[in-house]
Amino acid sequence: MAARALTTVRSGFRRLSTFSAFSPPPPAQAPPKADPSTNLFVSGLSKRTTTEGLREAFSKFGEVASAKVVTDRVSGYSKGFGFVRYATLDDAAKGIEGMDGKFLDGWVIFAEYARPRPLLPSATADTSSGYQTGYQNPPTY
């Protein structure tokens, strides 16, 4: 009796293991490239990278209007990404060419044109004029 139950359990497991009700996930598609702009998104930054270090590295390729490393509120360390804004589109293209795939503070970084931030329908809509701003206020706790 025990041998028959074991055989039934094993054969049932075998049947379940050969049947898959799940289809494979669709192949991943890269998001579309952003339109050229003076604002660059930089990823792959070290936790030790500072705003000044980012500005200094990218200023070799053109006039940097602003640079910002996004940091954690608690630790103050970099979250691993930031933004660099150049004065001209030419400088921005040179910045991408010069820094994409290069080392900064011991880490390989990636530079690309920044995508515009999606607008929140309720937080950014001005109902009187229908005008939407590109700014979003951070949540208050």
From TrEMBL:
Keywords: RNA-binding. Residues 38-116 form the RRM domain. Residues 121-141 are annotated as: Disordered. Pfam families: RRM_1. GO terms for molecular function: RNA binding. It comes from the Eukaryota. Residues 124-141 have a biased composition (Polar residues). Gene3D superfamilies: 3.30.70.330. This is RRM domain-containing protein. It comes from Dioscorea zingiberensis.
